[in-house]
User: What shape does this take?
Amino acid sequence: MVNTVLTPVQKRGQANLERLGLPTRRQEAWRLTDLKRLEAMASLPSVEGSAQHAWPSIHQGVTRFVIGTGVDPLEGVQLPEGVSPLSEAELEQALGHTLDRCGCAETWPVELNHARSQRVLALRVRGSVAPLEIVLAAGGGLVATRVLLLLEEKAELDLFQVIPAERESAAAPLAHSHVIEVHLGQEARLRHGVLASASDDSSLLAHLAVEQEPRSSYDFVSVCRGWRFGRLEPRVLQVDGQATTRLTGLAMTGTDEQFATHTSVCFEGPEGSLDQLQKAVAADRSHSIFNGAIQVPRAAQRTDASQLSRNLLLSNRARVDAKPELEIVADDVRCAHGATVSQLQQDQLFYLRSRGVAADEAAALLLKGYCCDVVDRLPSMAPSWLASAAINDPARPL
Amino acid sequence: MIRPDAELLLDISDLHASVEDQPILKGVNLQVRAGEIHAVMGRNGSGKSTLSKVLAGHPAYRVTGGSVRYRGDDLLTLEPEQRARLGVFLGFQYPVEIPGVSNLEFLRVSTNARRETQGQEELDTFDFEDHVRERLKVVQMDPAFLDRSVNQGFSGGEKKRNEILQMALLEPVVSILDETDSGLDIDALRIVASGVNQLSSPETASILITHYQRLLDEITPDYVHVMAAGRILRTGGRELALELEQIGYDWVDEQLAAEGVV
Ligand SMILES: Nc1ncnc2c1ncn2[C@@H]1O[C@H](COP(=O)(O)OP(=O)(O)OP(=O)(O)O)[C@@H](O)[C@H]1O
Ligand SMILES: [Mg+2]
Assistant: This one.
């Protein structure tokens, strides 16, 4: 697609990366990060990913885009009514705007993506359109992908993003660098699901910047598991308040994986709402990090925000760091937050076992039960992905 | 039904058990033969539920002495799931709520585990639905409960019915029903009792832990045992339960004192 627009972006990205240098633990946002893994990921060569046989077939009425392959993602795709590609001039104007507004400029993962990505899938959405599915192709090395979505006033969309890192191609380390910018016009509605599932030596840096105009609704559901090193950063800005944001996340880690979810929601006007649930399941020696920033400046009176972080530790060597980060200046607000850490309940395990269910199967059932309030909220395309050979792993049920 | 030559299903001998290093069971002796119904009564805290959990294999309870043989084999070395698959069933006094786990899926997995051990073929999702619907009639339970999470938000009585539904699906050999009657309204008690009666046969046996004669009006016990201080203090026929209604448990203290226990 339109590579020319990205040429100066790449140059700037490279220059900024050099200027910034790798993050250090002295920076609060990177304090708990395994920086060696970050460095290893950043040193991987840029590659193009490829589509895989294990992917499920496309649901009827759904449009699938495959990005990161080196081929124009629009090639051979029949766009549904209401969805159109941005012209080069439009792209020039819009690209990076939401990132800047959400305060993502000059953040290291975004600059890495700028320096590496060759293409951008840029779409405008008008009216209520059929669901879209965006699949990030993986390859041995680092695949950088970028998406820009503009939802016009009253537009409605279900978007499902799949980030698989399949075992079949896992001979070399796999890495994804992904940036998506979304602008929601007034009264626009976006239901956005992300399923990022990996195994073995795989890394993920995914950055989401979402700008919401008044009375828009953004419903984000993420399920991430199996990344040896991962960081998901959704940043939402309600430009004039009065919008609805819902964030539901699940991060599952095992072996020696480290996964961090850094969410940030900023209300720049009154009467906005946020409903956030972030869950983590940490097994073995893994490390799960959650940082949930909520900013309610003086202008954001009558904001109604709630954030709940629930964490399940499956091993006493696993570690969870969950931290709310509330900056509340406005005085007339409701802002509730809470965090819990628990283990699998002995009595529940015994109950299942006393009915003949084997101990490991009982644990798997309980785990599935714990995760289902997030997993079941993924868009309707999710179950066939979850059942597909690309994602399904009987040892790690979802 | 007492038949002295019937198979000895459960043979509990001088059983001692502790929880958190505190001795609770202090020498339980009980023999249960096929076809028999035993009622176990006794004051709160006398160790009835502890006995039932030890038999089912709850990991929090440590057996410190004695033995339990089930159909001739050592029961205590088996994992809880193995005991269940071989036909030992515990109806919980407090059935556990499991959010997010579908009751139907749970029932299917457990039914198939038991069937496999019995050499029967596994039921797939469709066949199981038919099977469970038919079994629901035993406890006159609304099929809507199948779609909910295991016991979650069930009323006390609904949880108890769900326990008997599980009994109906697992077709156990020895059932230990721990206060299945508590929390049931009068009609529900009759339904549950008739379910238990339907599921009983000359090849199976039940141990009913209860505080009330009302259940024993519906399910006639062959033996009534009174537990106290972690032992079975007295055993009689069905008339013992009626007598307890009259005299209560004051005599227990005297007898324990006479035996030098307290
Ligand atoms: N997990 C446990 N931790 C500590 N104490 C326990 C535990 N389980 C049982 N006990 C104690 O063991 C004793 C026997 O309890 P158990 O539940 O067996 O009594 P019960 O006869 O079933 O009483 P009820 O009629 O009230 O159901 C009680 O004193 C109880 O507090
Ligand atoms: Mg009890």
Notes: DSSP finds nine helices and twelve strands in chain B. The mean pLDDT of chain B is 95. Chain B has one domain: 8-258. The longest helix of chain B spans residues 103-117.
